Amino acid sequence: MHGDDIEINLFDLAALSAQQLSQVKKQLDDELEHLTASFQQLRAAQAKFRECLRSIATGVSTKVQDKPILVPLTTSLYVPGTLADNENVIVDVGTGFYVEKSTKDATKFYEAKVDELGNNLKDLEAIIGQKSNNLRVVEDVLRQKVLSSGPGPSAQPA
Amino acid sequence: MAEQQQRLQALSEEYQKLEGELQANIQSRQRLESQQQENKAVQKEFASLEDDANIYKLIGPVLLKQEKTEAIMAVDGRLEFIENEIKRVEKQIKDTQDKSEALRMEIIQIQSQQPGQGAQAQVAA
Predict the structure, then answer these.
(1) What is the pLDDT of residues B68-87, one digit of tens each?
(2) Which domain covers residue A142, as residue numbers?
(3) How many structural domains are present in chain B?
(4) Nearest residue to A89 (alpha-carbon basis) of A70, A109, A72
(5) Which Pfam families match (chain B) (predicted)?
């Protein structure tokens, strides 16, 4: 996107009119909002995978082999049952495909997912930090501009 | 003067329409991107599976067992389709951008020809 240019053009920022500056600011605002929303979605996805890991660890092990469990048929109707297979689970790998995996492999699968998302989150965090910096710089220049020019003709943004 | 004003109005409306189109195109581009990512992840997952792994496909509410080769083919086919779609949408995006840029230039030109009346149809790029 265009945000990266701003770092290079820092010195040119002063040359922009107040109107152009507020456009740049608006664009940065939008980008930042979008990125923050993505960040939250990634975090939610990561939490979901962690939940799967926990479910495998506590719900599908030899410990629960013969214990009765309540299986939800609807959100308010349960039937008792026992786990027929405590070694294999079926994992949703995306786009409607499901793969039967041993609990060990499934754990590995989810751990890899969590790590992958963790890396994405880190990258995204760096980008968000950079963008916020850019935004702050633009806001500063804009403020100075408005202050120094007073109620000039360019002070009314479109 | 009124004629020019009308022309400006029409151009602005068309410009708005193009911007809307552009937004829609960008959205479908983004949707394709996430589908591509998901399919690539599945492809990678399939590549790391044993040949006799049990793969199921969700059809409606039921899971149907599927051959690995079949599943791989399905995913490959989808990826190819998505790639073509991305190319198509990107071309659309570019065309729309070119068109709206040309329109913007025209609007700016007309606006600069009538000093003192800029306030009516400000084009915020």
Answers:
(1) 999 999 999 999 999 999 99
(2) 9-61+104-151
(3) 1
(4) A109
(5) Prefoldin_2 (PF01920)
